[in-house]
Amino acid sequence: MAFQKAFISFALAVCLICPGCLSQLLDGCDNRPKDIVFILDASSSIWPVDFHTQLKFLQNLTKTFNIGPSDIQTRVGIVTFSNSWKVEFHLNEKMNKPDLAKAIRRVRHLTGGTNTADAINFVADNMFLPENGARHDSTKIVIVITDGESYYKDKTAAASKKLREKDVSVFAIGVGSKIDLKELESIASNPSDKYVLEVLNYRGLKRIESILRQRTCEVTMAPTIAATTPATSPSTTKTTMKPSTTTQATVTTTESPTTKEPSTQRPEIAKTTPDAENLQADRGRITKNCGGKPADVFFLLDTSGSIHPTDFKKQLDFVGTVVGMFDISPDKTRVGLSTFSHEYNPMFGLEQYHDKDSLLGAIKSVPYSGGGTDTGHALKQLREREFSRQFTRPSVAHIIIVLTDGLSRFPDQTKNQAAMIKKTGSYVFAVGIGNNIDKNELSNIASSPDSNINEYAFQVTNFDGLRTLRNILAIKTCEIASFQRDEKVCRTNKTSDIMFVFDSAYYGYKLSNIILDLIQQVSMYLATTGGKIKTGIQSNSCLKDSIRQLSADPIEVVQDYDALPQLITDLRIKQFMSANGGRGTSTKMAVVFVDNTLSKNAEIQVLRSKFRKINFIFVQMGNEVTDKKLQKLAGKAHYVVALQSDSHTTVQHLNTLLCEGI
């Protein structure tokens, strides 16, 4: 309470002495003046509702600025463009927040083409003149928002170069799928990972609001952060925003100095603590602990243009050191690696290198590419290709290690793709390098802390800092391999014969493949019992009477043909016979896939089968169990399982039921 009173007194004193300083203090920005000009695309390719969303984005963003006429406050101007440019207002026209908000609301949608070059040229020549409100000692920032390619790319690049040479820091925001990343990079200041932002649509602007606010703040704050950087020219701020290359690196995390999001269960970014330092064990101990604990480990490395080739080599050295602690062989630990920028580049898969020497040689030869940072696309490609079930082993831990130094092009897509990978049961470590990392995004990529591993997201201040992580990461990988090995082996003393039953003609090609994929995952788990559990499939191959010779008679179609009763009948009569692999002393179980409910005929066949001591588990299509009759037929409520969109949950449920036996 005493501290709160002291802070309030201090804040009131600040307000009395320096009006407007308090908001600067709370913003996390210093009191250097900022002159910010927005260049807004108002062409016909933008729908009116999207143009309004763009204006709303500006209102929300500028609401947090310390707007005012004093020497330490922020001024804002806006220029719109289509075929030509239009000045909405200069820097010295809207000098308080209410006037600014009202002026933004009144900006009109011009419609027309996309002449970005003329708009940037006009801003470079006119908007930062003293008579238009610019100040000689201000930090000058331009924020360009566009949804498409400009008429004249060369002219746009030349105009942007002229603007930057006038000591203006330029952000370029691309909206939608028709943007040209190279053109955005030609507009923006360097590094592009800091000054280029992309969103999938205008609603996505809200997602980067706090990011852009922080980055404009950093442009202002940069001269006071780096002691070696002169503070005499705004242009020097650009160099200080690159990741530090000093060797005094630590694993750290900090709270965002701008806005706080609602409290959610996010993985914390790992901090350096005495406990973490104690994990710096020698290589021999780690190698010993990893021995005999197989895993499929995949590295996904950022090779975008913001990373210097020398720093990229440090990434490879880090990977080589971590891999060197594993026991590499086809039946123990296997390693794959891909790189990404705006493209996904597979280097080698899990099945390619079977010994440590050849693997380390392949890691050293991975090339640097440069480009943008499309993390979401890389995660999608990895999940669908190199780290799909076609190439991973079902009974070992699946571990992905992502290294990146910047915000991805499409943060929402990155979040969604990371979630899809984690739903497959893979564990994801995310390592952020440098000061340009979005900590929320890093946490979204990483797995959530659990009872076995308390942290999956890490940040180091620079690429040299990766050395502080190598032993920690190796130990945590071994820990996952250890407990996951136990989780992926069915340990039972019971013998069971299990048949999976579904009507493939009813479900069709797409759903049948989903069911077969699930059956394959479960059967792989049950196959680890050493023969105690046998599995099989009872299904049909085509519709009844689906072949008919040519005839002049009308075709009669049997509607809603229900094959499930006959499938269950065949199951009861044939499938558990010794001639078909059945064992007289084993527990007999049937896993039947149903849609909403069973027909009366199917119910009768289930009851007849139960009389033969065949136990039933039903898998109901959909995210929840809705049929109480199924639960009654099964005998217990938990013997009816929902086939959820997250099939990993369903697989785990079935694994537990079938391994333990009924």
Task: Briefly say what this structure is.
This protein has 662 residues and is an alpha/beta fold. The chain contains 23 helices and 18 strands. The chain has a seven-stranded mixed β-sheet with strand order 7-13-12-11-8-9-10, with helices on both faces.
Structure characterization notes:
Residues 35-212, 296-473 form the VWFA domain. It comes from Mytilus coruscus (Sea mussel). Residues 1-23 form the signal peptide. By secondary structure, the protein is α/β, with parallel strands linked by helices. The chain has three domains: 34-218, Rossmann fold; 295-482, 3-Layer(aba) Sandwich (Rossmann fold); 496-660, von Willebrand factor, type A domain (Rossmann fold), CATH 3.40.50. Helices cover 39% and strands 18% of the residues. It is built from 23 helices and 18 strands. The chain has a seven-stranded mixed sheet with strand order 7-13-12-11-8-9-10, sandwiched between helices. It has a six-stranded mixed sheet with strand order 3-2-1-4-5-6, sandwiched between helices. It has a five-stranded parallel sheet with strand order 15-14-16-17-18, sandwiched between helices. Helix 6 (153-164) links the parallel strand 4 (139-146) and strand 5 (168-175). Helix 20 (564-575) runs parallel beside helix 21 (600-611). The longest helix has 23 residues, at 504-526. The two termini are 60 Å apart.
CATH topology label of the largest domain: Rossmann fold
Q: Gap between N and C termini, in Å?
A: 60 Å
Structural class: alpha/beta
CATH class designation of the largest domain:
Alpha Beta
Radius of gyration in whole Å, from Cα? 31 Å
Q: Please give the CATH architecture of the largest domain.
A: 3-Layer(aba) Sandwich
The CATH superfamily label of the largest domain reads von Willebrand factor, type A domain
Beta content:
15-25%
Instruction: Tell me how many strands there are.
Output: 18
Number of domains: 3
Low-confidence stretches: 1-28, 221-268, 271-283
* Order of strands across the main sheet: 7-13-12-11-8-9-10
Tell me, briefly, the overall form: elongated
- Total helices: the number is 23
Helix content: 25-40%
- Major sheet attributes: 7 strands, mixed
Biased composition (Low complexity): 228-265
Region (Disordered): 228-269
Signal peptide: 1-23
Subcellular location: Secreted
